[in-house]
Amino acid sequence: MENIIEITNLTKIYKNKIKALENINLTINKGEKVTIFGPNGAGKTTLIKTIGMFIIPDRGKIKIKGYDTQKEEKKIKKMITISTANERSFYYRLSLEENLKFFGMLNNITGKELKKKVEKGLKEMGLYENRKIKYMEASTGMKRRLNLARALIKEAEIYLLDEPTNGVDIETKIKIYEIMEELSQKGKTIILASHEVSEIEKTDRIIVLKKGKVVADKKTEEILKKTTKENEERLLELIK
Ligand SMILES: Nc1ncnc2c1ncn2[C@@H]1O[C@H](COP(=O)(O)OP(=O)(O)O)[C@@H](O)[C@H]1O
Ligand SMILES: [Mg+2]
Description:
This protein is α/β, with parallel strands linked by helices.
């Protein structure tokens, strides 16, 4: 199998001295569907954002398809797309539709294709009816869904999804899982950060983070048992 992400000795210490990631070593193969699992504060978002090149590590290295994230950012940008809970990166006075259009254009999507993709994204995320609402007037759930629509409008090889189903309704949740499955069928690599036990089964591999360290790295089938209760117990055992 071809490895697409290679992380070596990755450490991130925030200004307040919190060690969010400590000496992480991981290899992720092309086409893998991975959950980064762990409780709040485990370092999931920091890891996703470091892979996504929003955070510069203090030590260590990430290579994506052989390119170094700290040296060849431009080359890597095209290969990845990221959805995080960051709300500050949208235009507050623009509508949901206009925001999506704008970010589509930033990814060099234009004309009819842009129109089609924006419409598809809004519909998929259940935002079409509310597309004219200004971002600042949208609900939290709408903002979250728009964030995901923005990540998905870009054609990439690696999809970094930080708790994409957090705060969305059940219908959207199911849609998100469907989209993940479609992407996976196309051979895309998916990295999902989650603390929801029920979400684990949507991916093939679980990397468990605890206080910035990898404490387990397993195939999903090794972890999952028949009942949700048993699964929960097993997962909780890992982060104890
Ligand atoms: N910008 C920041 N400045 C300082 N500390 C941070 C910052 N972001 C996260 N942290 C801290 O780093 C740790 C890991 O956070 P995070 O990566 O958000 O974890 P998770 O996504 O698993 O909840 C936590 O202790 C958190 O408080
Ligand atoms: Mg997080």
